Description:
By secondary structure, the chain is mostly beta strands. It is about 5% helix and about 45% strand. It has one domain (about 25-145): Beta Barrel (Lipocalin), CATH 2.40.128. It has one helix spanning about 30-35, and strands at about 25, 40, 55-60, 65-70, 75-80, 80-90, 95-105, 110-115, 120-125, 135-145. An eight-stranded antiparallel barrel has the order 2-3-4-6-7-8-9-10.
Amino acid sequence: MKRRSTPKPATPGPLFDPPGQKLEGEAAKPFLLRYLANSTFTDCPAGFPACSVENLYSHTETTYRYCRLTMTSGADIINPPQGYAVDAAVVNPDGSWAFRERVENYSNVSAYEWEISADGVVRGAYQFQPNSEIEQIGPLQYVSGARDCSF
């Protein structure tokens, strides 16, 4: 009688398909459309209310949204979707990537710089307007799918 072998669990692949070469500018756009255009950077990957507070930065192909969801009534920050533009982008051979974006925030244009590791850890920097203080963001986690701040 032949003994059955126990199947091994599937080994997860990389979070982002590594391009094997450095991509910049226009060459990085297909990668950004695939991974940025429908994504969320969050400190609560399970989503609120699994955590008592969630900060999330969400991207669709044309809009950006920042939200801070809490258990405290009236303390949430839920910004409406804003337009954004990517100024610079680089994708590294290992699948890690970085980009700079401008976000139209009412009559102001804010700047963000994001670095996303090959395993999806996100670190960022935010500047509300030119000459204002730069705020460090993260670490956060990349999650596929844009979240809309509802729970």
